[in-house]
């Protein structure tokens, strides 16, 4: 069994209920949820939106290989109302890289594997830039090491907070 870490989140609909539904579907399609963070509210990252996001990090045991895991997480997103075509249209109209959505499930880690294909990059390449990822990660896996940087999640979070202070 592999240990994977995913983050679920969204900013449309009853997001807190959708987070619970995502967790249930992940247990059904991916594997046993070993740890789950609290739900965290955050401002949209990388684009402008009226509604805040809610996120939750899950540590899951799975027998799925990385690309099977990706297909499973994308099916969870679709079943919870994510419409990638509509998102693409919104991004094209706004000129922004991201758009609001009911549910997003990102694969953060897959054991200590490093993988880079056209459709999947593990670990997720923007973990160290996103407080909404690092904060719940630090709640459940503060001492977990990033397989590329070698830094623990708590160290990455502290580094991000220090960079934010410098930018002010």
Task: Give a short overview.
Helix 1 runs antiparallel to helix 2 (66-79) and helix 4 (131-140) runs antiparallel to helix 5. It is built from 5 helices and 7 strands; from the N terminus they run βαβββααβββαα.
Mean of residue pLDDT values: 94
What low-confidence regions span 5 or more consecutive residues with pLDDT below 50? Answer: none
User: Tally the helices: what do you get?
Assistant: 5
| Strand element count | 7
N-to-C order of helices and strands: EHEEEHHEEEHH
Radius of gyration equals 15 Å
Explain this structure.
- The chain is an alpha+beta fold and 168 residues long.
- The protein is 39% helix and 23% strand.
- The protein has five helices and seven strands, in the order E-H-E-E-E-H-H-E-E-E-H-H.
- Strands 1, 2, 3, 4 and 5 form a five-stranded antiparallel sheet that branches. It has a two-stranded antiparallel ribbon with strand order 6-7.
- Helix 1 runs antiparallel to helix 2 (66-79) and helix 4 (131-140) packs antiparallel against helix 5.
- The longest helix is centred in the first third of the chain and has 15 residues, at 15-29.
- The chain starts with a strand and ends with a helix.
- The relative contact order is 0.19.
- The model has no long low-confidence stretch (mean pLDDT 94).
């Amino acid at each position: 069994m592999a240990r994977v870490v995913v983050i679920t989140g969204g900013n449309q609909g009853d997001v807190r209920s959708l987070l619970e539904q995502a967790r249930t579907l992940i247990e059904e399609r991916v594997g046993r949820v070993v740890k789950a963070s609290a739900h965290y509210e955050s401002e949209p990252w990388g684009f402008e939106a009226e509604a805040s996001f809610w996120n939750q990090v899950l540590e899951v045991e799975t027998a799925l290989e990385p690309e099977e895991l990706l297909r499973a997480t994308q099916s969870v997103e679709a079943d919870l109302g994510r419409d990638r075509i509509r998102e693409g249209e919104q991004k094209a109209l706004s000129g922004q890289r991201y758009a609001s959505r009911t549910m997003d499930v990102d694969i953060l880690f897959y054991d200590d594997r490093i993988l880079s294909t056209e459709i999947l990059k593990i670990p997720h390449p923007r973990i160290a830039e996103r407080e909404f990822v690092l904060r719940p990660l630090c709640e459940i896996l503060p001492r977990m090491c990033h397989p590329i940087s070698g830094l623990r999640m708590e160290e990455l979070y502290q580094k991000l907070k220090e960079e934010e202070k410098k930018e002010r």
